[in-house]
Design a protein that fits this description.
- With about 300 residues, this protein is mostly beta strands.
- It has three helices and 23 strands.
- The strands form five sheets. Strands 16, 17, 19, 20, 21, 22 and 23 form a seven-stranded mixed beta sheet that branches. Strands 1-2-3-4 form a four-stranded antiparallel beta sheet, with no helix packed on it. A four-stranded antiparallel beta sheet has the order 5-6-7-8, with no helix packed on it.
- It starts with 5 loop residues before the first helix and ends in an 8-residue tail after the last strand.
Length: about 300
C-alpha cells in the first residue's frame, strides 16, 4: 500500500478544507463588491446645493414660494389635484391659496405638485397613483418623499429628484419620461423610486422625455423618440444617453427643447413632427448671456 505524503494528508484534513472554503467565500465576496459597490465608489463625488425654484406652472395650475417660505397655489383643479383642495367640481381659483410653509423650491404637473423645504426634505401633494408609493394621501397634509434633496422636477405622473450627493431618482408612471418600462411591463404600471444616475447636478422631467446634466456638463436624455447627434434615423432612447457637452440646464415643453450652455448661450432643439422625434443634431442658437431657462 503506497504511503501518503505529509502534503497529501494535509489536503484531506478538515482544517485544510475549512481554510479552502474560507478562501472561496472571500473571493466571492470580493467579486460581489466589485460588481455592486465599486461603480458607486468610482462615481464622481459632487455636492449639489439646494436649488431655489420659487415659481412653477403647468397647464392651468401655478405654484409660488414667497420669500418667507409660504407656498401658494392658484388655478384650475379637480378633486385631489392637489389633494388638499376640497371641492367636488372643477374650480377656478384666481386668488392664491396658502398651502404650506418653509418651502424654497417647487415643481408642479397636471396631477401633483412637490415642494422642498429649507432642510432639503421633499414633500408631495397628490391624489394620483404615484402618490400611493409613499403612503396614504390625506387632505390634511402632504406626504414626505425623501430627505437631502437639492432639486425636483415632475411631469404628468412621474418625477425626478436630485439629491445633494448627485444621486438622481425617478418614480411614477412606467410609460412616462425616463421611466420607460422594461420589455413586457405594462406602461400603466407605477414604478417605485429607483436610482437612475449618479453624479447629476440638474434634472428636468417632461411628459415624453427626461434630462440630466452631470457634473462635467454633459447633457443626458432618455425617453421617447430622438435624433441623436450621430444618428440618421430616430431611435427610442430607453436609457440615459449623452447628447451634448458644456450644458448647464435644459427645459422641454414638448415642442421646443431649450438648452442653456455653461457660457450662457441658449440653444433650441426642435421637435420634428414629420419624424415624431426630438432633433438634437443641429440645435439653433437663440440668445447669448442667458442665466436661466424654464418651460
Amino acid at each position: 500500500v503506497p504511503m501518503q505524503t505529509t502534503s497529501q494528508a494535509n489536503r484531506h484534513s478538515p482544517r485544510f478544507r475549512y481554510w479552502l472554503l474560507l478562501l472561496a467565500v472571500a473571493i466571492a465576496a470580493a467579486l460581489l463588491f466589485c460588481l455592486l459597490a465599486l461603480p458607486r465608489l468610482l462615481a464622481p463625488r459632487i455636492q449639489v446645493p439646494l436649488r431655489p425654484a420659487p415659481l412653477d406652472g403647468y397647464a392651468f395650475n401655478n405654484l409660488c414660494a414667497a420669500s418667507d417660505g409660504s407656498l401658494y397655489f392658484w388655478g384650475e383643479t379637480t378633486p385631489g389635484v392637489p389633494a388638499l383642495i376640497r371641492y367636488s367640481d372643477w374650480i377656478d381659483r384666481r386668488s392664491p391659496l396658502k398651502v404650506a410653509e418653509d418651502i424654497v423650491a417647487v415643481s408642479i404637473s397636471q396631477w401633483a405638485f412637490y415642494g422642498i423645504d429649507s432642510g432639503g426634505t421633499l414633500w408631495l401633494w397628490s391624489a394620483t397613483s404615484s402618490g400611493t408609493l409613499f403612503g396614504d394621501v390625506t387632505e390634511e397634509s402632504p406626504i414626505q418623499v425623501m430627505d437631502s434633496v437639492a432639486q425636483v422636477s415632475c411631469a404628468s405622473d412621474f418625477c425626478l429628484a436630485v439629491q445633494k450627493d448627485g444621486t438622481l431618482w425617478g418614480w411614477g408612471n412606467a410609460g412616462s419620461g425616463a421611466i420607460l418600462p422594461p420589455d413586457g411591463l405594462d406602461p400603466m404600471d407605477v414604478l417605485p423610486p429607483r436610482v437612475l444616475m449618479r453624479g447629476v447636478r440638474f434634472a428636468f422631467a417632461a411628459p415624453l422625455s427626461s434630462y440630466a446634466v452631470t457634473a462635467d456638463g454633459t447633457l443626458w436624455a432618455a425617453g421617447g423618440r430622438m435624433l441623436l447627434p450621430d444618428s440618421e434615423e430616430p431611435v427610442v432612447v430607453r436609457e440615459f444617453t449623452p447628447v451634448m457637452e458644456n450644458v448647464a440646464a435644459v427645459s422641454d415643453d414638448e415642442m421646443n427643447i431649450l438648452i442653456l450652455q455653461e457660457d450662457g448661450t441658449l440653444l433650441r432643439a426642435l421637435y420634428r413632427e414629420d419624424l415624431l422625434a426630438v432633433d438634437f443634431r443641429e440645435p439653433e442658437q437663440l440668445l447669448d448671456d442667458v442665466v436661466s431657462c424654464n418651460r
